[in-house]
Amino acid sequence: MKKVVVAYSGGLDTSCIVKWLKDKYSVEVVCFSAFIGEVPDKNALKQKAIKCGASKAYIEDLKPEFAHDFILPALWAHARYEGKYPLATALGRPLIAKHLVRIAQLEKADAVVHGCTGKGNDQVRIEVGVRTLDPSLKIIAPLREWEFKTREEEIEYAKKHNLPVSATKASPYSLDKNIWGIAIEAGVLEDAWKEPPQDAYVMTRAIDQTPKQAKYIEVEFDAGVPVKLNGTPYGLVDLIEKLNAIGGQYGVGRFDMIENRLVGIKSREVYEAPAAEILLKAHEELESLVMDRDFYHYKRVLSERYAELVYFGLWFSPLKTALDAFFAAHQKRVTGVIRLKLDKGHAVIVGRKSKYSLYHEKLATYSKGDAFDHTQSAGFVKIWGLPYEGLDFKSKI
Ligand code: ARG
How far is the CA of 132 from the centre of ligand 1 (A)? Predict the structure, then answer.
């Protein structure tokens, strides 16, 4: 092995990894950082990587690609793992895998390296993604094999080797953030009975800190893509970031759950995803207005499966690709406006309209102007119930 590409964040783990790889494997180390959340100082990060011993650092703002190629399909799929988690971290990993492979091929590297632990889902997502895209690449996961047992030992190592790790006290939580949400783990959160302390939250306000007055917003979709907020057009990344800020102010999009990891354990997870919560609800609502009953009901079954595939690291897989095509099939109908009320942690749908609406007030009304032909129902009901007539349910009387 001569050269490796490291998925580098600039944090303690990946900084130690760069140095450790050079010592242990005597390889040239190239770093790669993808920004899919906040965009920090590119130059500073590059310098940091070089100081740790990297020969080169690719620092790339991949938010637009993340939004269009990863978030949007998941939005169309209404993907929420176990009905809750909108999959922010799980969506980021295949993007990182893809670019690790791209850079490894460009650099003619022998291996890619990640800083995931041996206990999480992220190692699976990155490694399965990398192997699907280029099985010739080796994969190194230092956290599964190195000698450090604690954070303190890593800090010691960093100090000894003069690695530029920040002196500020690290968060007591493990955080992973991108524009689709943040995952918060570890520390006191591992006690499943304890309410997450206020300082665990990053993107959302506590309910008692939210404005007294509810806020009404309108999200407009064009062919499935959210394009306007309150009548003003935004690119997808900007719209998501805007909704994170507004939703966060109203405490929207907090999740506190026990989750079934792929590696078999249950973990306590805290998530914040204001934009995801608003956009998923709005998109689901618009589809309920414009799609027929069969499609709408069947899709719900597939959404569950899709979320599992993404969570389980199978982004680049035939079933996932086929399901993407299924969900994309009717998005052109998903054009219209959804009105929501943000209030004390809730995003409540209060109005919807679309030129493709299948809701007809004339058919639905119980008031004057009812166009529904009640006389037709007698025959319909009779025939619908025919197969069940006289079946053996007498004991239920
Ligand atoms: N449990 C979540 C998932 O598997 C969040 C993982 C957070 N990852 C992290 N490196 N902190 O998607």
Answer: 21
